Each structure stands twice: as structure tokens, then as C-alpha cells.
Amino acid sequence: MQQLFKLGCVSLALTTCQLTSANEFYSSDRQWLFGDWNGQRQQLEDQGYKFNVSIMSQAATNLSGGYNDDSDFENAAQLTLGANFDLSKIAGWQDTTAALAITKRDGNAVTLERIKDPRASTLGNSQEIYGRGKIWRLTQAWIKKGFDDNALQLKFGRMGMSEDFNGSQCEFQNLILCGGQLGKSIGSIWYNWPVSVWGANAKYQFAPDWTIGVGVYEVNPDNVKTDSDSDGFNLDMDNVEGATIPVELAWKPKLATFNGLPGEYKVGALYSTADANNVKTGEVEDGKYSFWINAQQQLTQHGADPKRGLYASVNAVVNDRDTTAVESTQQLELWYKGPFDSRPNDSIGFGLANYSVNDRVTDRQIATNQSRGYDSYDALASNYVPVQHDELNVELNYSYQWSPAVLLRPNIQYVHQPSGVKEVDDAWVAGLSVKLNF
Questions:
Q1: Residue 242: pLDDT above 70?
Q2: What is the pLDDT of residue 176?
Q3: Residue 117 — left, alpha, or beta (φ > 0 → left; ψ -120 to 50 → alpha)?
Q4: 136-147 and 152-159: which strand pairing?
């Protein structure tokens, strides 16, 4: 994997050479760094085979604050090998598609190394790509079939839950500001990329602007084991503990309603049948639930280009207070696509998001410390339990889209109360995301 990091760094360094032809390796309009394979790649896509090879790298360094303010530099990365298949073209199966993806993650996170109190459970992360083990994983292996001109779509196989429910835009490097929110607070029953589980879902467009979806996904702790690469390819259901069942209603107006600009609005709920521990008493509950809202709206349009302008996204999750340590999350994001005429595909982003820790968890932590003789924060005692409250994450970034194949995103982040611990200094973090499509 280290060789992959080096390859990404070499590719990034060479992008400083501006070339004009799309056939040149580093041209600003090149679709893939490995090119079109002498026309074969586009020909294969026309026949129903679309391939994806990409590397995402996220570097971060702590500038000040945190549990340990000694400066540190950490890099996390992910390799993705994927393919999509249009089976209507390949096999004549009308309105049928399939996907296969394998991923490998590696590296470390500055949040864990410097920013949070190591005795406290982790809330946010300044590098969203870090987590779920440094192993190879089968991330996608599913097939989807449409009926009635795709008004009804059925999907089955191995997948992450936020592919189809609680999905959201990812324009940031900070974890809670990237994508769906459920996996950030109920990760024991809700699995985001790169973890996949056995699942099935159905979505029905019952009106031109309205879609209803329902899914059933296994809750299986074997799927998040990280002891070896074989854990990332677990396909058995021997230790399934229950099912997570989400329902989501989506409104996506065909005729844009906000100053003639498009948007999408979703509300959803889930119930998990897996047993869950009560955060106050420790007793076993029969299940747990969550609710969410996702809203994304284009607010302005720059000139005649419908893609340029100001966008906003609002996301919120409310979890079962009896069984969940994070009671809710709230997120607000703004990004401006095409800020300069010379850079129509770049964007400037600003986002803030909050973890709200369940006060029942806070009370339990206080009681535990008092029983051990601690009346105030002790930075050295190994058996002291840091008392957790809210954690606020803020990010400002600039996305430099050199070409469809190369994205650079320098960013600055601010973390208030890392892991919700008031006694830990607020932290400033500088980061850089790089994505290369080969």
C-alpha cells in the first residue's frame, strides 16, 4: 500500500505541468490518468462495462490544541477497484445493473494520535477516510432490477446502507461533514462504505416528484472485524443478531421550486431488531430506532451555467436515547461551485456539524468517576473516564478540480471539545485530500 501512496504523490507532483491536449497524461481535461486505452475503455462502456480505479489520500496535521499539542502529520488512504455492469446491454436483461467493488484502507488518523483524549470514545475524525480496519474489503457486490420503466427498483446483494438511505453530498474531509450521518453515531447497526452487508431494498416512484424506499439489512458484527483480510470478505450469516429496517420518503421536484433551482428533500426512520444495551442501566433492550432528515438545495446560479452557484445541505439525525451514546447529530454545509470563470469546476466549501452526547451517558461517566474518587478531570489517571458533552466540527476548504481525473482539496478544520471533553483544548487542523482516478 505504501507504493500506492508514493504513486499518488508522484501523480500529484506532476500535475503542476499544465498541458493542453486531452491525450497528454496530465492535461486538464483528461478523464482518466490511465487514459482511454486507445479507445477500448469508451468502447467497453458503450457495451455495458464501466471500470473504476481510484486512490483517495487524506493528510492532516494538528496546528494547535488537542490532548497532545505536539505537532504530528498523519496520512490515511484508500484504494478502490470497481466495475459497473449494464446488464441490459451485456445480457439483454432490461433495466438491470450490477456493481462490484473491492477496497483497501491504510494509514493513520491525527485525531486518534493527537487530538482526542485516548481514554474517551471517539466522536469525530479529521480524516473521514480512516476507519474500519487496514484490510481489503468486498465493498459492493449487488444487482438491481427495474420494473415499470424503473418506477419500481429492487436491489439485492452486498452493499453499504448509505448507498440508498440517509445519503448526502460529500464535499469535505471531516468525517461528520462527509456523506450520510447515521454511520457516525450508530455504527454498530448502520454500516457505511467500505463495509458491506447482506441486504435488499425496494424503491417506488409513486408520483413524478415522490419516491418511497424500504430496506432490510443484516446486523452482523462479523462484518466489521479487522483481524485479517479474510474478515473483509465474510459472506456467512452465522452470527447475525438481527436486522436494520430503514424507510425513507424523498421529494425531488421535477419542476424546481426554489427560484427555479433544483433540490432534494428526504425524511426517514429505521428500526433495528438487534438487542441493544440501555446506556443508563445496562439492561438489554429489544431494539433501537433513529430518525433523520436530509435536504439539499441549489440557492443561486452563476450566469447561464446550471451547475455553477451556491448550494446548501442540511442533515440531522435523532437516535434512541435509551440505547445510543450520541443522541443526535446536526450538520449545515455550504459550497459554491465555479467561483471563478477560469475555474468552473472548482468549489469553495464551509461546513459545521455537531455531535450531541446523550446526557444519560454523561451522568453515568460522572457517577463512575465519583465512585473511583475523582471529583475533577485527571489527565494522567488510567482509570479516569473522561466526561463527554457535545463536539463541534468546522471546516473551510477549496476543491481544486485539476481535471476529471485529479482533485485536490486543501482545508482548515476547527474542533471544539474534541470527543466532547471540555478539558481538552480546542484543536486547529490543516488537511489535504487528493483523489486520483485511473
A1: yes
A2: 96
A3: beta
A4: antiparallel
Identify the residue whose cell numbers are 482545508: 411
- What was the pLDDT predicted at 25? 67
Please report the sign of the dihedral spanned by the C-alpha atoms of residue 386, residue 391, residue 394, residue 395: positive
Closest of 259, 270, 253, 169 to residue 210, by C-alpha: 253
What is the identity of the amino acid at 103?
T
At 315, the pLDDT band (50, 70, 90 cuts) reads: very high
Are 112 and 123 in contact, with CB atoms under 8 Å apart? no
Digit-coded pLDDT (tens) for 82-94: 999 999 999 999 9
Domain count, the chain: 1
Q: Which domain holds residue 405?
A: 2-437
Amino acid at 150: N
Asked whether the beta carbons of 355 and 176 are under 8 A apart, the reply is yes
Q: For residue 90, which phi and psi values (nearest 5 degrees)?
A: -80, -45
Q: Considering the chain, what is the average pLDDT of its residues?
A: 92
Q: CA-to-CA distance for 427 and 391, rounded, in angstroms?
A: 11
Say if residues 69 and 425 touch (Cβ distance below 8 Å).
yes
Q: What is the CATH number of the domain that holds 309?
A: 2.40.160.180
CB atoms within 10 A of CB 264: 18
DSSP conformation class of 197: E
Residue 221 has, within 13 A of its CA and on its CB side, a CA count of 6
- For 166-190, b/e burial (b = at least 16 CB within 10 A) is bbbbebbbbbbbbbbbbbbbbebbb
Which are the contacts of 380, defined by CB distance < 8 A and separation ≥ 6? none
